[in-house]
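Holo model, heme C. Inputs:
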Amino acid sequence: MSQPRPSPKSSRLPLYFVAGILALFTLVFAVAFVLLSETSEGTAATTLTPDTYMDIVTPLLANADAAHGAMLVEHYACVGCHRAGAEATAHIAPPFVGMAERAVERRSPLTREAYIYESILYPAAYHVEEYTPVMPQNYGRLISDQDLGDIMAFLLSAEAH
Ligand code: HEC
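Output:
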């Protein structure tokens, strides 16, 4: 005489329960993933031409205010890394002084405007030799388009420091 087997229905219940929980988790992760990808600012360009980024950069600069940009680089603490300090040995990031001239040749065929835009939004796209790549990668989410335009106008101006 064998023991009566537990009914298949009741033995499968915990299985359905676990499967249900797993399905729920998958759904939550899927929704979170979609929401997160929607808030990201896109990706850096891979094929570069003189037009790359210009469809975004030109409107950003259209009504930009360089004087306000000068305040914003303090506000966003860019100068913590980019301003040459009293210590000549402080060598964290390329100084903003002379940025506009250097940006012309940094990453051909990008225009200097496009290069500065890419440097702020996608620092990992291009690495300036001699510096440790420590620039934060999340400015695309932190800085509004208006502020970004103002900062770029300031960096492109002769007053950049
Ligand atoms: C934690 C330090 C740090 C902060 C803060 C920082 N950067 Fe940078 N930045 C760097 C470093 C290091 C490089 C160069 C290394 C590289 O190419 O990754 C760089 C490169 C750049 C370049 C290209 C410079 C060149 O000469 O080619 C620009 C433009 C720039 N940053 C703008 C900004 C702006 C605007 C902000 C603020 C919104 C900012 N950075 C905040 C560290 C920083």
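The two ends are 92 Å apart (CA to CA). The first helix runs from residue 8 to 39.
Archived with the compound record.
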